[in-house]
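User: what does the whole thing look like in 3D?
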Amino acid sequence: MAPETMLQEAQDKSTTKGAQTVARPKGDGVKRDSQTPSTPSKPGPGMRSDSFVFGIPQNGLEHIEREVPVSEPPPLPQNSELTYVGKPTVRYDGPAKATGKGKYTADVHLPGMLYARMVDATIPHGRIVSIDTSAAEKLPGVRAVHVIEHVYGVSELRDPKLETPSRYPIVRYAGQPIAGIAATTQQIADDAAKLVKVQYDTMPFVVERNAARSPDAPVVFPGPADAAGSAGGGGGPKDVPQKGNVHGPQRRLKGDPEKGFADADAVVEAEYFTQVQTHSALETHGFVVDWKPEEVTVYASTQGTSSVRNEFADVFKLPKSKVRVITEYMGGGFGAKFGAGNEGVVAANLSRKANAPVRLMLDRRQEHIVSNRPDSHQKLKIGAKRDGTLTAIQLTSYGTAGVGTGAGTAGPATNLYKCDNLLTEEYDVFINAGPGAAFRAPGHPQGCFAFEQAIDELAVKLKMDPLVLRDKIDESPARRVERQVILERTNWRNRREAGADSGPIKRGMGIAQSVWYRFVNMNSSCEVRVSRDGSVELMSAVQDLGTGTKTILAQIVGEEFGIPPAQVVVRIGDTRYPIGPDSGGSITAGSITPAVRNAAYQARQQLFAAVAPALGTTADNLAMQGGRVVLKNDAGKSYTLKQVTAKLPTDEISARATRAPEYSKDRLTYGGVDYVELAVDTETGRVHIEKVFGAHDCGRPINPTGVISQINGGILQGISYALFEQRIMDPKAGYMLNANLENYKILGAREVPEIEIALVENYIAQSSTDAAGIGESAGIITLAAAIGNAFYNATGVRIRKIPMTPANVLAALGKAQPEVEA
Amino acid sequence: MNKFSFVDCKTVDEALGQLNNGATVKAGGIDLLDLMKEGIVAPPKLVNIRNVDSLRGITVSKDGLHLGPLVTLSEIAAHPDIQRTYSGLSDAAGHAATPQVRNMATVGGNIMQRPRCWYFRSTDFDCRKKGTSDVCHALTGENQYHAVINNSTCAMVHPSSTAVPLLGMNATVELTSKRGKRTVAMSDFYVPPEKSLINETVVQPGELITGIFVPAPEPGTRSAYQKYGEKESFDWPIADAGIVLVMDGNRCRKAAVVMGVAAPTPIRSAAAEAVLTGKTIDEATARAAAKAAMQGATPLSQNGYKTQLFQTAIYRTVLLAAGQMQRDPSAIG
Ligand SMILES: Cc1cc2nc3c(=O)[nH]c(=O)nc-3n(C[C@H](O)[C@H](O)[C@H](O)COP(=O)(O)OP(=O)(O)OC[C@H]3O[C@@H](n4cnc5c(N)ncnc54)[C@H](O)[C@@H]3O)c2cc1C
Ligand code: SF4
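Assistant: Here's the predicted 3D structure for the full assembly of 1155 residues, as structure tokens:
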């Protein structure tokens, strides 16, 4: 989904549910006169004024005054002055993961648990005439069968009356779930699934984006249809026209692009193609549901315990208080795991019918079909003045999210650089294939692949260094620092003319930049408990999808109590605890860490108040310093936490806190600059990535190790997207041909280049922690574009289509006949 | 996967006795398990030969190299005599699949693995080869990895890396059944689709590969194998070349140019061999041979690039065999 849409969605949420606020700036939290007056007015009731460290260390830190609720903890100093926050910290649950002790959803085993298998459609389009489950039901060991009445996660007709009502949903893609079966063993469930007889009335179908655009193409929906986004984004615009399979455009106009192009000294214009990428999480989508009349317990492989609880409550008309969702360990989601989904709904129905817990994990083939990043065909035109100033940007994009929507790509073109004249038109094209879903920086890798290559092309035309051109057009102070880091720490200064090598192997380097947006979810609460024995625990429903959330929460609590993070007990991923944000859009760190710090701080204040009399002092004379509790008026006296908690009059104290709203209404973005060195073998079409250097910002990094690990992962996923991954559909049969990990190719250990990361601290004075997420702006956005730019520098040829497989590379180099563009 | 029974055999006779009523030999089990999981084969019984000791072992003697069919690809790759004298075979075994697969994969199973074609390997499709329809989907559908030579009947490819040098080195395969033993030359081992869509090799039901023999090379022989594809590891070849040169100083006296996944079976290129024979090996002759090998190619709608890739594979592997080039960093595996 395009960020504007995402922003809109988020704002809608905040008005309808009062839950989410969004803030996004033009720059990176720079002081701007209109928004951050230097002499703040007197604080309002319940507020006080605090002075926060602000800015980027490389530019010299400043201080800024912010009005904050009186209940907020005092501002944190910069990382270099802290003990645990901002220090490289080993993963809290690393040992449990490495030794197999961590229990993922697929590891959950409950007494009497049944195993389920989904029955999928074997045709790409048609009506279900009948479903005969009798043979399956008779198979010994089968305990429940559930036939699906409604398919979740796909587009819905605006006017449902356009289709004749039927007991069964229309099949719109091969692999669409039809029914579920629960049995005493997985083998029996699998065997039973094969015994379900489905009779279809087939309809014409189309699985190619280009073919689907044709006026005489078979239509996927008989009229306009829209898909809702999930808590992770995704979904497309709703109030747009639809002709045949073409949904849109979502049109945005700023200024006068025509005039902008007329004023330009140089114009670049080209078409770009990107492929469908499937999420391919290592742990497939899945649930264990234990339906009991008093409470439904759901073990979910999810990015949002709250989103699962909400959808279960909605679908089954249950009070939320009767739904408990647990996600202890999570094996990857990348944006596609929110809500109950078809798997969750089926597992719950089976559990209810069988009166036993049911485990339903998708298999690898289903995992490839359940969600994807839409493809794109983009036409992009940019005009600029001789000095680089952008005069106009025009983007038209078509993309398919299968039976979903959300293929827009305009984020980078709209939000990376200053340009007064902009026209973007984004179309979704329906095809008979599995639905798109939010996928790590929705729309941005596609958009960036085109946009940042076009900017590079502009630099060539203007005879400007690509970094210098960006210095001219990029208003972000963080990226300015990041470009400087790239210049100083990479080989950039030795960059040669494009195509300088004469042999078959050609080397080059390139960069690309990313932008992502600060979203905050106010459903962010936490409880911190302190016991008399000095143990400290924190509880929140927020989940750790493998990004290291547990670790940063432990660091924050550790900092408040002066104890190492490993000593803090972190209990999260359970809706019995105070509500936590769903993890999508890089929202988690920025949303939940302030709640955790606030709860820890308040618990500490309570502790001080409770023990002060026993220590012969007053609470306000106690402070935490260098890991010890000190008396402010007696430098000689200090205690360990344990010595202090031993004086507690009760066994335990606890505090619960929620995140305060953002301290300022600034609209903030994050970003990064990624640099790639590569070699192109022009006779084999292999692209060898030799080195990646990434410079990134994400507010105050809480755990640099974790942030770097996220960026490494983003870079690798970005390389994988640029070079290997692609869904291949058979146009005649309508099936995905490579729904496995053999022919759906994902980067492996041998394709990992040397990676170096520089983190740029950026203090934004927005919350009690100033933390921000990094998941989206972590390399996934930029890599294809940076590789494309390096490819050009190596070969002198622009590659405008990914993945850069031998077939596509040799075609770009003119050595092989290109296949007909689908 | 279907239910099946499993018999563990200790001797060849025991295994032969069990090979009835659709029973299938299981060696490393890598390909077999894949096919069973996908539902492409559903044998009622697996005859495990992995514990038949007489089918193991590498012997290098004056007359040549004797390989038990259970020798793993890792064992071949690590063997110093094979590295020295049969380097093309060592290259092929050492760069196939992945380290984990090579530790399990046997050479007998490797040359017997079923062909690659995603229509063949999916139960979603009936096709000409399966005998369930007249159609070859690859000819009109998605064929980017398919054959570029001899591809008009069925455009599948056989991905065995070891078969490529074995063919170039004139290896023979010993087959044993209850009726006795027979020896088949590698050049007769594979059956192209024009001859039979059912049999991919001459191995008959009830027959077991009990040995592979590679004759000792003539003096002056040098060999090499390289594989090209999309990923460094965990990937199938899209083009691979096995080259055997008998050299007289700089001059090539005899040449074998073998291509792996160019056709439904591994094939030699007489045209390329003719270009090399009698010539001094240099980049120009190597490239000329490569070009000749692809002269008669008939690429399909999406695999034209494979003809380019094969030319690169062949010229670079000729130069590698001749000692004029290092192992190519663009080769995979
Ligand atoms: C990701 C991946 C990449 C790969 N890349 C490559 C590659 O680059 N190059 C390559 O060569 N291979 C590659 N492979 C395939 C792999 O090498 C083969 O599957 C393996 O060699 C098969 O050997 P096996 O011992 O496991 O055979 P099995 O699976 O046990 O058997 C295979 C077939 O041979 C028959 N069989 C086995 N032994 C005998 C015998 N003694 N007599 C008669 N019949 C027998 C079996 O009945 C079965 O039909 C790859 C595999 C994977 C998963
Ligand atoms: S190439 Fe062969 S196996 Fe593949 S679809 Fe055609 S006939 Fe079938």
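In plain terms: Chain B touches chain A through 35 residues (CB under 8 Å). DSSP finds 13 helices and twelve strands in chain B.
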